[in-house]
Design a protein that fits this description.
It contains nine helices and four strands, in the order βαβαβααβααααα. With 246 residues, it is of the alpha/beta class. It has a four-stranded parallel beta sheet with strand order 2-1-3-4, sandwiched between helices.
Length: 246
Amino acid sequence: MDKNVCAYYRTSSNTNVGNDKDSKKRQQHSVRTYAQSKGLNVVNEFYDKGVSGTLDVLNRPSFMEMLNYCEENKVSTIVFESACRMSRDLITMETGFQYLTSLGYKLISVSNPDTFIEDTPTSTMIRQVLGVISQFEKSNLVKKLQVARDRKSKLNKSKGIIDRNGNGKCAGKKRLSEKHPELAKLVVNYRKMIDTKTHKPLSYRKISARLKEENNMIVSHNTVHRILDDVVLMKREERNRKRRKI
């Protein structure tokens, strides 16, 4: 058996991608530990970030890059943390397995090393059952998360914590005014100033220009508009919270 192998990692959600996240580190640790225990040499690692497990392997950028590397460097074994890194969808997993094995590749799932190795009726059944379980777990998790988000959205709306559309705010990105409170404070202060020519509050474009000239901050007029809208919503939420206390 050739000792040189490639490692493949995949993370579905971009929220789980980054140096402070566990997904890639966990997969990497599992694969490297397994390879070391079996005397395998991981010559290269490939990582598809924010790629759904239902997407065909031939449409994954890093997966295709890996296949090109394997072909050029005569590597015939690919190691995954588990079968679901290959795919969480039964059909995608099975078609991907059949395609890769037809090209001469050997696939190894660290969590269950026999998943991809043998192509017998029994191993095919096991592989398909594992795919079904993985697919069920994903669907079940998505449903639970949706129920939790709906519950939190209703609760936040009752508290006056709302998004731009008036719905209860739930997860998502932080508002600009929350991420950059100092910038928000500057924008609000500039908005209070009166334009000597129009005798009206400074326009979004003039606030943008002031930020660049006086603070060396490049902020578009559209962003200025969004920050001021955010501030209005946050003040509304604060008023609603105070009313409930009363």
